[in-house]
Amino acid sequence: MRIIRYTQKNYHSAIKKLDRRPAPPAGVEAIVKDILADVEARGDRALIELSNRFDGAKFASAKDLRVGEAELAAAEDAVDAETKKAIAASRKNVIAFAKRSLRKDWCGKNAQGAEVGERYLPFERVGIYVPGGSAPLVSTSNMTVCLAAAAGCPEIVVMTPPGRGGEVNPALLYALKEAGATEIYKVGGAQGMAGMSIGTKTIKPVVKVYGPGNSFVVEAKRQLFGVVAVDLLPGPSEVVTLADSSGKAKFIAADMLAQAEHGGDSTMGFVTDCEKLLAAVQAEVKSQIKTLGRQAQLKRAIKEGAWCVLVEKLEDGVSLVNAFAPEHLSLITRREKTILPKITTSGAIFIGNYSPVAVGDFLAGPSHELPTGGAGKSFPGLTVDMFQRRTSIVRLGQESIRKSAAIVEAFARVEGLDAHGRSASIRLE
Q: Is residue 42 located within the same domain as residue 181?
């Protein structure tokens, strides 16, 4: 865990090194390019061979790629009642939040009396990637598929990687079905993203893709942009806590360790103006880590991705946070009304000592698919309106065209487009 204090000589250069740009690891770009080309050239056969090679799936034919009704029924039977209850509670909150966020049609009149408005329609066929590697991200099914269902998308295609032997975690399958997935394929990695974006004999292509994934999945989305629309490019997970002396060390440490569970490429940051709290958080991390599973992963993640910064005043921490643009920000301060409005780039903000990021991951309501790698400076997190296609509406009558024609003709003269002007004035003859 790196410790940076405002009193040290290299403070500003050390802070600058915390900034980062989202870029694929060395070699990933070329590998993904080859995978996409292979899927485009060989379709289902490429998906079968790549799944068998990378995931040990042992698929024999294209029909093995899709999860069938019998498999879904078996998954439902295998999931215990407590898990089903948790999935349902999460789904209820996510759908309620999404419905409040839906963009709605509207209509009004401009200054010339023309009827103008917007219409929002769901995309006809969308593709969602749900990770399922070391940990089946059951929650991601709700945080993505539920939004597509709430938007009214009639065809919701899901790609998720299979385990050895070609199986998918039953709880994940159950959650996907309950969320509204209409097709589920056991294909992961860049090949899964390619399968639903480019299409094969078995899989009809989608119009837009969504969802988080590893570096290969994210790079595939990057390379496929233009072939298909994409939501955002979420990379390794991040949390930063900004706290004054009111912060509780054991809670802050617990959030950092929860983030570390995502893997060694995750980021766990802590920014404070309180030296005593800084020391207490360090001690709590060392103490709590001994009580948790995934010891090797947690220790590596903390060593490689954790950092703490002591700032002179909390406002300096605000500037650091805005420059870093963390995926998740935990804000703990007695001066919430002053500090909160100054936070501008975080993907999601969790306020107070009793707002763990994990509640946002699983239950709160907003989607947990959020911008990382500094992308929060320009990208929002996943929202339900990203599943809607916007169309503008314009209607003029005789009176409104009369009031509009002269203005159109003025623009036409300036731009040297006389046919544009004529198309308006001819309606007055």
A: yes
- 219, 284, 328, 369: which is the annotated catalytic residue? 328
**Pairing status of strand 115-122 against strand 388-395:** antiparallel
Q: How many CB atoms lie within 10 A of CB 326?
A: 30
Per residue in 9-59, pLDDT (tens digit) is: 999 999 988 877 666 778 999 999 999 999 999 999 999 999 999 998 999
* Whether 193 and 47 share a structural domain: yes
Q: For residue 95, what are the domain limits?
A: 28-230
Query: Which tokens in the block code for residue 226?
Result: 């233009």
Distances (CA, A) of 126 to 148, 343, 363, 423: 8, 33, 24, 38
Residue 305 placed within a domain: yes
CA-CA distance, 410 to 429, in Å (whole number)? 18
The CATH code of the domain that includes 110 is 3.40.50.1980
User: What span, in angstroms and rounded, lies between the C-alpha atoms of 187 and 50?
Assistant: 9
Flag whether 406 is in a domain. Answer: yes
Q: Which structure tokens are listed for 408? A: 């159109």
- Told to judge if 327 belongs to the known catalytic residues of this protein, a careful annotator would answer yes
Quote the tokens at residue 284.
């709590």
Instruction: Return the percent helix, strand and coil in the chain, to nearest 5.
Output: 50, 15, 35
Q: Are strands 388-395 and 267-272 parallel, antiparallel or unpaired?
A: unpaired
Contact 146, 210 (CB under 8 A): no
Residue 323 and residue 306 share a domain: yes
Tokens of 13: 């250069």
Strands 115-122 and 106-109: antiparallel
CA trace torsion 171, 233, 298, 320 (10° rounding)? -140
In a domain, 370, yes or no: no
**Is 328 among the catalytic positions?**
yes
The one catalytic residue among 327, 368, 399, 415? 327
Residues sharing a CB contact under 8 Å with residue 416, sequence separation 6 or more, in sequence order: none
Of 364, 384, 409, the last residue of a domain is 364
Given a contact cutoff of 8 angstroms between Cβ atoms, the answer to whether 265 and 372 are in contact is: no
In sequence order, which residues have a C-beta less than 8 Å from that of residue 30 and are 6 or more positions away? none
pTM, to two decimals = 0.92
What would the pLDDT profile of 296-328 be if each residue is shown by its tens digit?
889 999 999 999 999 999 999 999 999 999 999
Give 120's strand partners.
390
**Residue 68 DSSP symbol:** P
Whether the CB-CB separation of 343 and 331 falls below 8 Å is answered with yes
